Request: fold
Amino acid sequence: MLVSAKEMLDKALEGHYAVGQFNINNLEWTKAILETAQELKSPVILGVSEGAGKYMTGYKTVVKMVEGMVEEMGITVPVAIHLDHGSYEGAKKAIEAGFTSVMFDGSHYSIDENVEKTKDIVNLAHSKGISVEAEVGSIGGEEDGVVGTGEFADPAECKMIADLGIDFLAAGIGNIHGVYPENWQGLNFDVLAEIQKEVGKLPLVLHGGTGIPTDMIKEAISLGVSKINVNTECQLAFADATRKYIEAGKDKEGKGFDPRKLLAPGTQAIKDTVKEKMEIFGSIGKA
Ligand code: 13P
Reply:
């Protein structure tokens, strides 16, 4: 069932668990995530970065593919197609193409410009029942060309953006896209607690979900995090399983080169990763 992400995240905040956003790259990725969500009766958010959208030939292709899969696979759990780190123009395009949720990432603008642009996107998206994620502070590291310095979000600025009527907020609290470096300082829960105090009952989003220890995830959820984004971990699991298959020479046995066989171990690895995350996030059985 394709839906906006608002209701599933309001419920998650209320129920003290988080819904996973798993980024997609192609058909195998999408199928693996949808299958797992349905098997585990979990709501799910399919994240699409602007780069991945281009790779899949455009937002319309993504929407039609997901719509088709939801129908043909008989998916009954709530599923949102969500633009990840959208630019101002990108968010408008995704809304036009039929995404059910968008992130407008105005964190690299001045706070005044972030407020102005976020307001426009909220008005446009809400007129079509589409949910909106905004960002304050920045997520460190790089994702699909979006580079962030990793500065902490200012709780007062979070309040300004929250007051625009956004549906959920990404706030930098020391989280980083990609694999965490050895000397990572961890999440800053003091900043998170201050943000939560300012924004009240607004679901918060934790980007950079790859490699965050379980105890930190649980503490973040207890402080209002209701959506956690995971991308790199599925990519690493897919690459690892595919490499093992090829290194074992399985593509040379019989028809092992058939793409449906060649991509099967990687697809299964994505399913296993998604399951593991849903267990930690507590979203199993919540659909
Ligand atoms: P990771 O790639 O670190 O899991 O981050 C994903 C993310 O935050 C998507 O926006």
Notes: The two ends are 11 Å apart (CA to CA). The mean pLDDT is 96.
